[in-house]
Amino acid sequence: MRLKRKDILAIEELTKDEIELILSTAESFKEVSEREIKKVPTLRGRTIINLFYEPSTRTRTSFEIAAKRMSADAINISTSSSSVVKGETLKDTARNLEAMNPDCIVLRHPSSGAPEMLARLVRCSVINAGDGSHEHPSQALLDLLTVKERFGRIAGLKIAIAGDIAHSRVARSNIHGFAKLGAEVSIAGPPTMMPSEIEKMGCKMFYKVEDAIRDAHVIMVLRIQLERQKTGLFPTAREYSKLFALDSKKLEHAAKDVVILHPGPINRGIEISSDVADGKYSLILEQVKNGVAVRMALFYLLMGGSRE
Amino acid sequence: MRLKRKDILAIEELTKDEIELILSTAESFKEVSEREIKKVPTLRGRTIINLFYEPSTRTRTSFEIAAKRMSADAINISTSSSSVVKGETLKDTARNLEAMNPDCIVLRHPSSGAPEMLARLVRCSVINAGDGSHEHPSQALLDLLTVKERFGRIAGLKIAIAGDIAHSRVARSNIHGFAKLGAEVSIAGPPTMMPSEIEKMGCKMFYKVEDAIRDAHVIMVLRIQLERQKTGLFPTAREYSKLFALDSKKLEHAAKDVVILHPGPINRGIEISSDVADGKYSLILEQVKNGVAVRMALFYLLMGGSRE
Amino acid sequence: MRLKRKDILAIEELTKDEIELILSTAESFKEVSEREIKKVPTLRGRTIINLFYEPSTRTRTSFEIAAKRMSADAINISTSSSSVVKGETLKDTARNLEAMNPDCIVLRHPSSGAPEMLARLVRCSVINAGDGSHEHPSQALLDLLTVKERFGRIAGLKIAIAGDIAHSRVARSNIHGFAKLGAEVSIAGPPTMMPSEIEKMGCKMFYKVEDAIRDAHVIMVLRIQLERQKTGLFPTAREYSKLFALDSKKLEHAAKDVVILHPGPINRGIEISSDVADGKYSLILEQVKNGVAVRMALFYLLMGGSRE
To answer: Are C92 and A268 an interchain contact pair (Cβ–Cβ within 8 Å)?
Structure first.
């Protein structure tokens, strides 16, 4: 089985069937990482380039491990703003990498839309590993897999997403993903962090976390970008934390069997309290585990031949 | 087939026969990168260390992909000036790496002659991936391959090289390479960028690009190092560009079937205009493609057993 | 054969039998690095993460080569203080990496005890690649192997260690290791660099290098951390060098067949003179060679199945 598309750029453009194919493929790959020999020969001789214009140890490591467990060759290129090739545009970098015949480029970029531009320029597959405040599709897919595994379904569930919705590519990808699979999404955050086009996205909007999580099956807490404080989005971490951090007190407003997701890395005591992050509701580590499986599935569905 | 030498340090010291062997070997490896499974088992179990004292995403990536497509293990060591092991000389680094039994060290270094010193210190093979303003042999080899593929020969062709000849290891390697294979090389650039020993190299020298390219089959445009501006080599990028950038107007002085090379990364609008870089004459991406094949060939000819 | 422990955190906690098993296993792996095909399939499909919170090209490279020669997949994560994931504790990093199902994490960390904390948090194996001024067990093991190969035994030998004993994890690991295997350890260094609990460690203490090395079979010279100068531990490099550097003059006080070790990288002319470092007594490069073998042995004994 193989996806009919060349690239994975955004959850917004995937169909329900495509998302379900990715999730079921990822489920079937989970056991590979549980084996003693965590490796299948499926993508031997394929070249995957991890091209990261923003530092992200976690996501890069997940993609790299996924590539190696599929037996592909992984090449890492990390271009911090200081070391990026002087005077070269992303377009020229793309064409040059393309000339080396990679099978897939995984791109993390601070500019929304960069992976789409890259995908139009190259014949090989492109996976968006997070672009600006646009999308982070593999994150949403691993979140969907984690929720689906817990509840056996996505349709009909109530999902609450709390934090800086407006600037979060994780939120955007998840809103699209959960909506496509039939869940109902509520969002909560300070007014300065609410997206302007939110009505179009079909979410319920709340300004109090307590209200958003009231009937939720799943609470997704977003990471707050503390460096955004300077831009006036929120006054102090303490104040944000008081109003919006998910702690055991706010959690009393949620259902008893609610589960909690966070894309990581966690700011303990800022957007989530330690007892909640480490508590019984938390599926945070299951998300990380599923991240490897989802990325193996994406590589397989974009490049794979027959699976052994 | 195997080269009789241990190292590839400079085109100047290679014979015509050696260069031709490398080019024909590289041609035979090109199809590996076109396959679905881009990998031959030839160098399985060999250890290649990419030791880069200057940042070079592009060249390092090309060598790393070449190593992996030959099934060798590639180890990257990038030592920016800040992170280089404190107080350790290149000599000590070399001996220490040698003690780990690598089969080949690929060295990029800001000092001319560093790879030669390294080669004398270690038993394993050394490939010069660019040293100061001395040589960059794998770049010249990929340029030669690109030209040979286009014209079916090198002998008798007229090659024009434009830019900062004096400080360019690419120019130096190419002047030697094209001369050895029987081409005629002309150079053009500002007087401050002309090498003093140029007559000995057997090139025709021009101060106007238009004159140098008049009968050329191939125009090689060098990357201008904008940071050299401070040293007084040229007054402003704009002025350099006006006189020396290859644009469609200057290109009118060249033959209709001329081809254009550039070692990359391109400074668009500085030493080459975008329409020329992206135009029908440009072989720039073919150069990058051939770079992987040339490096596979070098690894094979230095370390290889029998090829499958 | 396999170690009964999950982790290698400190020489202090290993038994004599365990150390001897590691050394004999390492000896058997040395020939792999001498072959043309330097690779055994033993650890295929295992995932090893090199997690380095301090820069260390040399140690990281040694572990990476060891992993690849065992056919394991190696993932490098280098987190300089500037690029470390903001706001994430080592605990969270550990749990997240664990969720990706690695088989072994190799940790270098500036804080003493960090690997032990990591080991308690994760199910996979942890190897301490140097933690603060605590221990650096793989360094001591390669030192033991080097001495054992030269003398055919450890028991009964006299070992002198010179330099900043108090702050050296290399010294601490070696004092434990040589003592466990029956050698007698003397230490020498300035009073400000002597550990307070030294009597408990069972060493003889000297303030003059000449006295410590008088009957020694082995002299181990420690690397001086020049950046410690600011803290008042020693006045100037020149003065330290005059009193404590091992040069040919001081070496006259040692036995004629003494051998010299240094963990590297060497500060030439500071703690050791060039003629001594490069002279006939020096086993410094043999140490590096043994480093790869010891690390292959550790990987094998922690993760291995049956060896071919």
So the answer is: yes
Q: Mutation test of the interface with chain A: which of B30, B38, B50, B240, choosing the one with the most A Cβ atoms within 10 A? A: B38
Q: Pick from A45, A88, A96: which is nearest to B38 by CB?
A: A45
Instruction: Single out the residue of C220, C219, C290 nearest to residue C257, CA to CA.
Output: C219
Q: Which of C10, C23, C100, C13 is nearest to C301 (CA)?
A: C23
Tell me if ipTM is over 0.85.
Answer: yes
For C113-166, what is each residue's pLDDT tens digit?
999 999 999 999 999 999 999 999 999 999 999 999 999 999 999 999 999 999
Looking up residue C167, the CATH number of its domain turns out to be: 3.40.50.1370
| B119 and B38 in a common domain | yes
Query: How many Å lie between the alpha carbon of C210 and the closest alpha carbon of chain B?
Result: 26
Q: Does residue B177 share a domain with residue B119? A: no
Q: What is the pTM of this model?
A: 0.95
The first and second tokens of residue C260, run together, are 């010299």
Residue C4 in domain: no
User: Token pair of C84, please?
Assistant: 């470390």
Is there a domain that residue C24 lies in?
yes
The reply to whether A88 and A156 lie within a common domain is no
DSSP assignment of A21-57 equals HHHHHHHHHGGGGGSSS---STTTT-EEEEEESS--H
Contacts of C268 (CB under 8 A, 6+ apart): B87, B89, B92, C274, C277
Q: What is the DSSP letter of C223?
A: P
Contact C95 A285 (CB under 8 A): yes
Q: For residue A147, tell me if it sits in a domain.
A: yes
Q: Do B141 and B107 reside in the same domain of the chain? A: no
Q: Percent of chain C at pLDDT above 70?
A: 93
A84 min Cα distance to partner chain B (Å): 8
Residue A250 lies in a domain: yes
| B94 at interface of C, judged by CB pairs closer than 8 A | no
Residues of C in contact with A73 (CB under 8 A): none
Task: Report how many domains make up chain A.
Answer: 2
Range of the domain at C164: 137-287
Per-residue pLDDT tens digits for A112-141: 999 999 999 999 999 999 999 999 999 999
Residues A161 and A279 in one domain: yes
Asked if B288's CB is within 8 angstroms of A96's CB, the reply is yes
Residue B281 and residue B200 share a domain: yes
Those residues with Cβ within 8 angstroms of residue A153's Cβ, 6 or more apart along the chain or in another chain: none
Residues B112 and B79 in one domain: yes
CB distance from A95 to chain B under 8 Å? yes
Same domain, C121 and C246: no
